[in-house]
Amino acid sequence: MPTQAKMDKVAELQAKLEHCSIAVSTGYRGITVNEMTELRRRMRQGGVEFMVTKNTLINLAADAAHRPEFKSIVAGPTAVAFGFDDPVDAAKTLSEFIRSTRSTLQIQGALLGGGSLLAATEVERLATLPARPQLVALLLGQLQAPIQRLLGVMNGPLQSLGGLLQARIRQIEAESAGA
Prior knowledge:
The chain is an alpha+beta fold. It folds into 2 domains: 4-129, 2-Layer Sandwich (Alpha-Beta Plaits); 131-179. It is built from 6 helices and 5 strands, in the order αβαβαβαββαα.
């Protein structure tokens, strides 16, 4: 018979799975208490919730949240990082922690808010993406480039015509001054 505390935990995990933009499953075997404390501090600073949970509870929550695919990336001692804003933030924070501390923390995979399942390697690639404002700026630059080139092509003949007319005006002025 499930206890009320476990039912509350499943409901909490279900709500997080339903509302998160990314849920990253990690294996925390071999992590010291100090490393776990440092990881949680960094995650809070990055706006990411990090919780250690039992696999049975997260599996029940995944079923209740209609995200059964998440169960396939939960194995062994599991901790889940829930990102609610930019999905890249959670992946970057975890990847940066693993790289900077040489931690034994292992990313098992992730579930994007839309329901897409990512393998560990894909989460690492997600972590290498630039921040959202930079991506938006790159996209806007790419959208503006053809328009600017078209404007340059269209202005070219007009500038040439303007230069030709100015040269002809100077030529006429020189002829009239000499006559």
